[in-house]
Input
Amino acid sequence: MTEIWFYHLQRQPLERVLPTLLEKSLERGWRVVVQAKSAERLEALDTLLWTYADDSFLAHGSARDGDAERQPIYLTTGSENPNGAALRLFIEGADVVLADADAYVRAILLFDGRDEEQLAHARTQWKSLKAAGCALAYWQQSEAGGWEKTQ
Output
C-alpha cells in the first residue's frame, strides 16, 4: 500500500519546496506526477520548473506536450499516471485519490499552513484517509527549513 505523507508548509512557500522535492525524487530514480486543482496553477508550475534556478531546470510535461510516458515529471489536474510515477504530489487542495493503492511508493499532500482553506482541506483529507486505513505520516517544516516527522 502506498505511504501517504502530509507536508505542512510553514516557513517556505510551495514554489521553494517543490523543486527540491522533485530533484530528490529524480535522484532516487523516481518519476513523479504533480496534481493540482486547476489548469492555471499547472501553467504557473510549468514556468516555475523551467526557471526556478539560474543554472538548472526540471524537465517535465503535461498532456498538451505529448509523450507523457517519457516525462520524468508529469503535471496534471486528473488522476492519470501516464509516466509510471513512483511518487504522486497533491498540491494546494487537490484531493488525495489513488485509483490504484499500490501504484506509487509514496504520495505526498503539500499544504500551506498559513492558508486556512488548505489547512482545513488537509485536516479533512487526513481524517478520511486515516478512517480508510491508509498508512499516514505528518511532516512539518523545522526552524532551519528541513522536515521533521511528528506523527
Observations:
- The longest helix spans residues 116-131.
- The chain has a mean pLDDT of 92.
